[in-house]
Every structure is written in C-alpha cells, then in structure tokens.
Amino acid sequence: MKENNSPSFGICLFIVISLLVIMGASLGFLGIPVHIAMSISMAVAIAALLYSGVKWDFIISSIEDGGKMAITTVLILFIIGMVMGSWMASGTVPAIIYWGLKLINPKIFLVTACLVCCVVSISTGSSWSTGGTIGVALIAVGEGLGINPAITAGAIVSGAYFGDKMSPLSDTTNLSPAIAEGDLFDHIKSMLYTTTPSLIIALILYGIIGAKYSSDTLDVSSINTTLEVIKQTFNLNFLVWIPPILVIILAIKKVPALISLLFSAIIAALIAVFVQGETISSITTIMDTGFASNVGIASVDKLLSRGGLQNMAYTVTLTLIVMPYGAILEKTQVLSVLLEKFKVLTKSVGSLVTSTVLTAIGLNIVTSSQYMSLVLTGRMYLQAYKDKDMLPQTLSRTLEDSATMTSPLVPWNLCALFFAGALGVPTISYLPYAFLNWISPLVAIIFAWLGLFQWKTGAIYSNKTYRPIDAKEGIADN
User: Model's pTM, two decimal places?
Assistant: First the structure.
C-alpha cells in the first residue's frame, strides 16, 4: 500500500483518459447530467488509485483538502446569487437595462458589452465580480434587443477576462509573475503584446456579428413595452447606481471580493426597502430565492426574474465535486507523473511555449481549477525557460494566455461553472463566442514559432538591457 509513492504512468494515463471519455460522452451524446458524470469519473480515479496501492486514508485526506479549497468559492457563488437578487429588487439592474435599451445601438451592442466588461474588470480585477453584476445586466439588455444570449455571454466573458488578465488587482495577474519569479508590471507590459491583437480581433468579430442587428430587425413595440414597465415598476433615481459604484471602489481599495460583494448586496437590499418599497421580509426572500417579476407580460417577466442564493445550488454542488477531484489528482501525484513526460517537448522556443499552452489547457480540463493549472504548469516549465535564458515574463504571460484565458471554456471548470450559473447560458453555448479566450492562446503559440516578443537576457525592455530572440532563433534549438 502506497501513500507517498507515485502511481505508475499507465494508471495516471488511464485516470485522465477515463475523465475525458466520460465527460465527453456525457456532454456529447449520452445526456448524462454533468454532476453524475463527474462523480463517475471520481469513482473511476479512486478505484484506479486503490488498485495501484494508494492508501484510502490518503485519498480521503486529499478529498478533505479539496473541500477546504472549495469553501471560499462556494461562499462567493452564494453571495453572487444574493447580489443578483438584491440588485434586481433595488432597481440597479432594471436601471442598466432601461438605459441600455434606450441608448445602445444594437449594431454595436456586442462591442460595447465587451468593452464595458473590459473597463469594469480592469477596475475591479475580478472577472467573477464583473460577470455576476454588470454581466447579468448586459445579458438582460441583449435579450431586450433580440440578441442571442449565447453571443452576449461570449462578449461578456471576453471582456471580463481581458481585465482579469491585465489588472494589477487581479489574483491571477499577481500569481503568474510570482510563479515565474518575475515582476508584476513587467508581466502586465509583456501581456500587451499578445492580448492587444487578440482583443482587436475579438472586437472586429463582435462588430461583424452585431452588424446584422439593426433598428429595422428589432421588435420596437416589445422594447417600448419593456421600457414602460420598468419605468412604472421601479424608481430609477441616482441611488440605484450606488451598488455597482461601491463594488468598483472597494475593489480599487483591494477589499476582498467576498466582502465587497456582500456589502454591495446589503446596500442594494437597503435601497430596495427605502427606495423601491420592499419589506425586510420580501427583500430577504428575494436574496434567498431570487427576484420574481409578475407584471403579466411574459417577455418582461422572463427578463426581470433573476438571482437568489438558492438558484446557485447547481453551480455550488458541482463545485463541491470537481474541487475534491482535482485535489485527489494533485495530492496523489497523478499530475506530476504525467507532466514529467512533457518536459522532453522543450527543444525550441516554439515547442516550449506550445507545450506550456497545451499543458495549461489540459490541466484546466483535468483539475477544473485555473489556479492549479497556473501553479502546476509554471512549476513544471520554470527551469526550461531559465535554461533558455528567457525572461520571467515570457513564462508568466504564456501562463495567463493559456491557463487563465481557457478556464471559462471548460464546462466543468470552476470559472465556467460560475459564468454559466450567473449568466444563465451553458458553457457549450457561449464558448464559440468567447473570442478573446480562445484566440489568445493561439496568438501566443503563433508568436512563439515566429520568434515575436520572446525575450532573452541581453534588448531594451522595461528600462533594462535584454536581447530579443529573432525569428530563426525562436524556431531553432536554443
């Protein structure tokens, strides 16, 4: 019986392949609920580890560690549900919907939604805060304009992750250079070289898609009805804008997301009571089960009925399965055994960056956690980047281009679970439209093989003396 010894490579490979097969089959054609499919995958992994000689007590300890890591995430998810309900009842989301429908041209709505989320997420440093607040309102605005929610969700996710990647307030933006042993602001500067062209391409695509929506294709009468109902149902004075402003201010002050979101929910609840006429009993019920519109117009009721702590249960329960599963694979060294095999794929700069990107994406799929993906990938390739005399920001940037950006594209990853739950759009539906998130890793790989922006010690960059790798050197062995 083993506790500290690693399982064999064959056992580790079997565990990962079984996960991919089970999850792929369940999502593709068997129709097995994702909770059950993930539970089956965990059972298969545990059985394989027990067969290989890993002690049951050690597996249980790993599960407990995963549960501890999940607690903060679960609390944030529940609070987001409360925020969504209280923001709706306070008139905050209805006000955003009202002015969005009045002022935003449908042709540029997707571009606007992406850019707004970029600004908010840079200000807050949190893709989750952006998606769970402004994102929810933008989904509703898009629905009012007759735009497919999946496309709107893709634009929201793209914008939210631009800021999550570029903001010095973001946890992943700070974690990545720490793993790569680099400087935070050198890291942010280096990301501009891959993220900026990726964002430009994404905005162009949103502009092309949005061009088919015009005033001529809109149901103007439906929009006017929605505007009239919102105006009659809610008091849209300046007080309703306090909750989102509070979130941004607290984020800039580096107040933890859990605290800032909770305060925002409480302030919104008070506004709902003193401005919108809710009672203490009704607003607490709304925060628990969600805001339910009953104006009698189906389209408006669907648009305004959102939020609630209880409505986050689907996402929370899946989180409580995937986090222990990822912890099992990490603690029993399944991931270490597999990752060791990838170290041979680092002969050139192009192959090194490609291997880094693919490893990070693979770990997002297997561990369901962008943090595990960042840390494990960074630890694995750090020495390889040092051996090639490459600057730390080349590794930290690549970690963000891959691990951070693809985390909301894996249906059972925590980030994807959050956005699917908050926006009410399945990951598989918005995935094709989250352009920035899948363009960014492609740009990272292409630039690496072309030898673009891959710095070695010795050209002028960030007021230091470094030598850039030329195109030939970027492809050849170093």
Answer: 0.69
